[in-house]
Amino acid sequence: MEPELRELLAEAQADPQAVGLVLFGSAAAGSQHEESDLDVWYVVRADPAPRSRRGRLELIPVTIEGLRNSPDWLKPALAYSRVLWDDTGEIAPVLAAAAEVTRDETAELYDGYLNDLYRSLKAWRRGKELAGRVESGRSLRYVGELLFALEGRRAPYPKEWEGKLGPLEPLVLEVARSGDPTAQQELARAVVALAAERGYADVYDAWEGDIDRVLGFRFAGEGHVRKGQ
User: How many angstroms separate the Cα of 155 from the Cα of each of 23, 64, 149, 229?
Assistant: First the structure.
């Protein structure tokens, strides 16, 4: 444990208002570097003080109820955090709950991906390169989070994705680099097959053939619609 965290732990355990410490961010995920902060939730019984900074330490006082009611965008931080001290045993279940991904959440991610894929491929077919690239980029956040969810895990923030997206990662990276519609189609077919294996064929079926149609588009060259299509 870093010296700053050891000192903070001793301080917290001597504080009658403190009940726990939770490390989050890159230091908790194991991807920190020499310039990384040490982000810590300082869990108190009530009336948390304003956040403060002590050198590398970014200290964020919060109650257990505050952690429990965190907004959705903060759930990846909770899910990949590390408990340094949990005096009452109430913190660990909150973090475990944040790491869970429901079927409804997974289905929503899948539908969001299909929606952006659909819009991107239609844009490319109409020669709208900017729209095609923008919609393709939007789709990648959905597909990355979906790939984690299909394995029963909440996705971390994208900076932690590298090397963790499984066999589809090279295709995800290719689409990220190029926005190429044919690469998007290849990735989509693989995602659709995987989602069906995991029991999410109903999400695809709800599109009533629209995704089948755009996956059938033919393109000539990266980002260029074949004439006559």
Answer: 18, 22, 7, 38
Asked whether residue 107 falls in the same domain as residue 197, the answer is yes
Nearest one of 10, 217, 203 to 107, comparing CA atoms: 203
pLDDT tier for residue 223 given thresholds of 50, 70 and 90: very low
Q: What is the pLDDT of residue 32?
A: 73
Q: CA angle, corner 80, sides to 78 and 86, nearest 5?
A: 65
Name the average pLDDT for the chain: 93
Could you tell me which residues are beta bridge partners of residue 38?
A: 57
Same domain, 85 and 184: no
CB 187 within 8 A of CB 143: yes
- Domain assignment of residue 107, yes or no: yes
Q: Are residues 183 and 124 in the same domain?
A: yes
pLDDT for 107-139, tens place per residue? 999 999 999 999 999 999 999 999 999 999 999
**What global pTM score does this model have?**
0.86
One-letter-per-residue 3-state SS of 58-111: EEEEEEHHHHHCCCHHHHHHHHCCEEEEECCCCHHHHHHHHHCCCHHHHHHHHH
Write the CATH number for 158.
1.20.120
Cβ atoms of 76 and 56 closer than 8 Å: no
